[in-house]
Each structure stands twice: as structure tokens, then as C-alpha cells.
């Protein structure tokens, strides 16, 4: 497969992954919260759950596509002089931060699982896990660190 096609698929996975997480932080959550009071209806929470469950699959597929297309691009670089330079070191930093993002996604989707929890018998006075501090901060860390990976990747193209 031509390298530009692999790069195109790589960037498509980047757009889908980071775009999805940003959409949730900037559009879905604020729409559910409406001024810090959790006033969203059962229907709204059900819709949030559906979106969250569907994006869980999209997110993991994007991560796998990033790993495969990224590895393919790395293989293209293997043996090149560039890998021995600061480029190689910074690429390792990119992969290190990406690994942390992967770990946070694992914790978010498989341990916390805020979307799986919605709809289960919920005492009216308890705040859904989706709005719990630990979930909010894990989601923010995933978005922030993904943007750091993007920043490192763009810097790498200038080297
Ligand atoms: C959130 C995760 C990631 C983001 C945001 C990201 C972003 C990018 C961007 C923007 C480029 C530049 C495309 C170009 O114009 O050449 C790129 C290239 C590349 N990425 Fe990623 N990437 C991610 C994950 C990965 C992973 C997991 C790997 C390795 C397994 C990887 C390996 C590469 C390689 C080798 C290149 C080509 C570098 C070059 O030719 O300069 N990336 N990535």
C-alpha cells in the first residue's frame, strides 16, 4: 500500500479518535449537565449511554488502526538514518505518551465503564458515574495526552 495511503488512514484514525473524545467533552457532557445541576432526563442519559457504548467500539478500532498504520510507517523508517537521530528519540516519546493514553482508555472503558453503568438501578439522589470526578478527570487526561501525542507527531514532521 503506498505510504501516502497509510498516512491518510493514520490521520483518519487520529481525527476519529481525538474528534470523538473532544465532541463528548465539549458537546455531549455540557448538554447533559446544564449549569452544573445534573438535570438530564432518563431519556437523555439513555442516549448518552448509547453514544458512549457506540463510541467505545469506534475508539478501540481507531486505536488499533493507529497502531497498525503507525507500525507500518515505523517499519518504512527502520534502517533509515533518521531513526538514529533526535527524530527516533522523539518518536519514542510519542509512543510512550500514546501508551499512557492506551492505559487510560483501558481503565475508562473496562474498569470504570461509565456508559455501562447508566440505566442500572440508580438511586435518584446519586450522581451517575458519568459525572463522577474520577471519570471526568480520566476523560480529560485522555483528551489532553492525545493532543500532546498529536503535537509531538506534527513536530516530528518538521524534523
Ligand atoms: C493518538 C495517537 C496518534 C496521533 C495523534 C498520531 C499523529 C500522527 C501525525 C499527525 C502524523 C504525521 C503525518 C504526516 O503528515 O506525515 C503521524 C505520523 C506517524 N505516526 Fe502517528 N499518531 C498516533 C499514533 C501513532 C502510533 C501508535 C504509532 C506507532 C505505532 C505512530 C507512528 C507514526 C509514524 C511512524 C509516522 C510517520 C512519521 C514521519 O514520517 O514523520 N503514530 N502520526
If you had to describe this structure to a student in words, what would you say it looks like?
The protein is 77% helix and 0% strand. With 159 residues, it is an all-alpha fold. The protein has five helices and no strands. The chain has one domain. It is elongated. The longest helix has 36 residues. Protoporphyrin IX containing FE binds next to helix 1, helix 2, helix 3 and helix 5.
Using DSSP, what is the number of strands? 0
The arrangement of helices and strands along the chain is HHHHH
Distance between the termini: 24 Å
As for the number of domains, it is: 1
User: Structural class, please?
Assistant: mainly alpha
Give me the number of helical elements: 5
Flag low-confidence runs. Answer: none
Oligomer: single chain
Enumerate the distinct ligands.
Answer: protoporphyrin IX containing FE
Q: What's the alpha carbon Rg, rounded to whole Å?
A: 18 Å
Key terms:
single chain; 159 residues; mainly alpha; elongated; binds protoporphyrin IX containing FE
Amino acid at each position: 500500500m503506498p505510504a501516502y495511503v497509510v498516512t491518510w488512514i493514520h490521520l483518519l484514525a487520529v481525527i476519529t479518535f481525538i474528534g470523538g473524545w473532544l465532541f463528548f467533552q465539549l458537546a455531549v457532557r455540557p448538554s447533559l449537565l446544564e449549569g452544573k445541576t445534573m438535570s438530564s432526563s432518563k431519556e437523555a442519559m439513555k442516549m448518552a449511554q448509547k453514544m458512549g457504548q457506540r463510541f467505545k467500539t469506534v475508539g478501540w478500532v481507531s486505536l488499533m488502526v493507529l497502531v497498525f498504520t503507525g507500525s507500518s510507517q515505523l517499519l518504512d523508517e527502520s534502517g533509515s538514518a533518521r531513526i538514529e537521530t533526535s527524530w527516533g528519540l522523539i518518536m519514542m516519546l510519542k509512543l510512550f505518551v500514546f501508551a499512557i493514553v492506551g492505559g487510560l482508555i483501558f481503565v475508562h472503558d473496562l474498569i470504570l465503564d461509565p456508559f455501562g453503568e447508566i440505566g442500572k438501578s440508580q438511586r435518584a439522589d446519586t450522581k451517575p458515574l458519568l459525572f463522577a470526578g474520577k471519570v471526568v478527570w480520566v476523560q480529560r487526561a485522555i483528551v489532553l495526552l492525545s493532543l500532546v501525542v498529536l503535537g509531538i507527531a506534527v513536530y516530528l514532521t518538521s524534523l
